[in-house]
Structure formats: C-alpha cells, structure tokens
Amino acid sequence: VSAVDACRWSTKSIPHAPYVTSLPWISHYGCQYVVHGDDITSDSGGEDCYRFVKAAGRFLIVKRTPGISTTDLVGRMLLCTKNHFIKSLTRTLLGVEGPGSPDERSIIAQEMSRRIKDFASDETGLRSGALVLSWDEPASTASTVSSSKSESYRTMVDGIRPRPGQRIVYVDGGFDLFSSGHIEFLRQVVKAEEALGRQNGWYDTSSIQTRCATGEGSDYGPAYIVAGVHDDEVINHWKGVNYPIMNIFERGLCVLQCRYIHAVIFSAPFTPSKKYLIEFPFGTPHAVYHGPTAFMPLTYDPYVGAKELGIYQQIGSHDFQSVNAGEIVQRILRSRQMFEERQRKKGEKTAAEDVVRRRELMEEEVTTLGKERAANR
Questions:
Q1: Considering the entire predicted model, what is its pTM?
Q2: CA angle, 317 as apex, 290 and 197 as ends, to 5°?
Q3: What does the pLDDT read at residue 343?
C-alpha cells in the first residue's frame, strides 16, 4: 500500500482489494473504468479476473510497460547472476555499451531514454515533471572518495526546477528493490521539511497568497528534494554477491515515479564530497538527509563533507527501517520451495538447491568481509 500511495500517478490506494474485480466493488469507490495491461490475469480456476467488468464494458487495456517482472527479480536473487549490471548508463544510453549489435544497442538506448522521459512526467503523465540529471566522473566510482578531476552534471530530461523560497534537499542511496523502507525514509524527509516550513511561516495565508500570485497560480511545498542514485559497480563493491538486484536504470525509474522526489541524479557518487555539494546545480543544498542503515558494511563515514558544511540531517528509526534489499532476498530464500514449485507449474527451469546454497555461502562471505573491514578500521 505504501508503494501505491507514493506513486506519482495514483490518487488513492484501497487495501484488501479482491483478486477478481467485481462491479459493486469499483462502483462503490466511484470508478468508471478498470485499466489493466495487455497481459492475461486469471484466478485459481483459470477464469479471467476481469470478466465481470469486461462484460459491462467498463474495462480498458493499455500496453504493458516492458521491463523486469517479479519472476525475473526472484531469478536474479536465487541464481546470483550479474548480467543485469550496467557498467555505464551514459554509454548505454548512447548505444555504445550493452548486449547485441550496434543497431540493437541503438534501439535499446532509444527505448531506455524514452522510458526515463515518461517516468519523469508529472502527475498527469502529459507534462514535464521531475528533472533528471547524471553525474559523470572520469575514473571508477568504486573508490571511497570522489575524483577531483572534471566531474560534471549533465541534464538528461529537463523538468521543474527549484521554485522561489524552496530549500534544496539532497538524499542518496542504492534504492535497490525500491521498498517500503526507502519510501518511508523519503516520506519522513518530506515530513521533516514540512515541519520546518511550518515553523518558518511557509503555510501562513499571506505566504501562500504571495506564492500563488508570483508563480503559476498554484502553491508548492517548502522543499525541493533531489535523489542521487549510485552505480551498480559502487553498490556491488560494498554489498558483494550480486547486489544490486536491480540495475541503475531500473532503480532510477523506481525513484523517478515517487511523488516525494523532484529530481534524480543518476550515477551519483557514493561519497557526496564538499566539492560535489558546493558545485550542486542549484547551489549548495540546505540539507543532506540520511536514514538508518544496517545493510551496508562501511568502514568510513561517507557524509563527512555534509557534516563539515553543517548540513547533515539524520532521519531516525521508523517502522520499515529493516525492509531493504538484503531482507527481501532473505525472505525469498526462505520461500524458495514455493518459488520452485511455481516455476515447475509454469514449465520453466527451477533453481537447484546447490545454486541456492551458493548464494547463502556468498552472503556469509560478505558478512565476514564486513566484520574484517570493521576490525581493520
């Protein structure tokens, strides 16, 4: 439910919805149509889940968004594959890197660029919304410090930029398997900035009237939140095994669709140095937020630069802080027998027990490495 609530294109989420959609159900909530992708969805008896609304002429079909499925993600977890990694998103979007022939890479690059633009649209899906940038660095970003050479911010998709009076807020992370843990952290950031805005009179009637009169006729929030998304190589350097389960393109799209975000920076450095923050496209951020982290075995503090600038803020514990990529993978491993049975019924190759055990051993190695890094600090 939290994921649906956080989606920019949803208006209201209804929990406990029936798997087979009935007319009384949608009429109760004032819904005229049911919209679904062009894939077939059946109930346990093999019948169409939308047969009732289809018979009533209240069903619309849209082309399903191409991309990864739940089955794909679970397969990556169990098989420990890394072929989904993207070495350089910039070069991939240029058609220079990636699988296939030059022509195939060009087609894939165009489709990826189009999807980034689509996901950056506003709540109507028709106008520009989130600003999309990339941060390019000449050297490998797997190192713990930012390069001092010619880094640069590049606009990928133009969007709404900071408005008068808004505080610039920066958050960063891997956002792998974009979950309730990430969403609640971002919601808490918005909540903290709204509380600060309330203290400073942002929501006073006179302030609202001034913004509406000088702007585009509509009000806006007190903070402009920018999310930096790390490269696959960076995350794998610290987490090992085959993390991230989703590559930077997939993770970036997840962040882009979130209503709590105004801009996304692809390939953001793992360490937001003072230089990186001072040269921010909108000026030095007013705040850099970070949340509770237990999954990343660090041997140093990546936020020293933000702390030296006096802009570091910590989000405290929350109900979903334990929900991260590692926890989700462990849930899947515990449920692997159900997954394998599901795959057998679908006639697909199952994940063998020895393969699953291999992942468990790799996870144990990462834990040991984290302890060794901590001991050597």
A1: 0.86
A2: 60
A3: 59
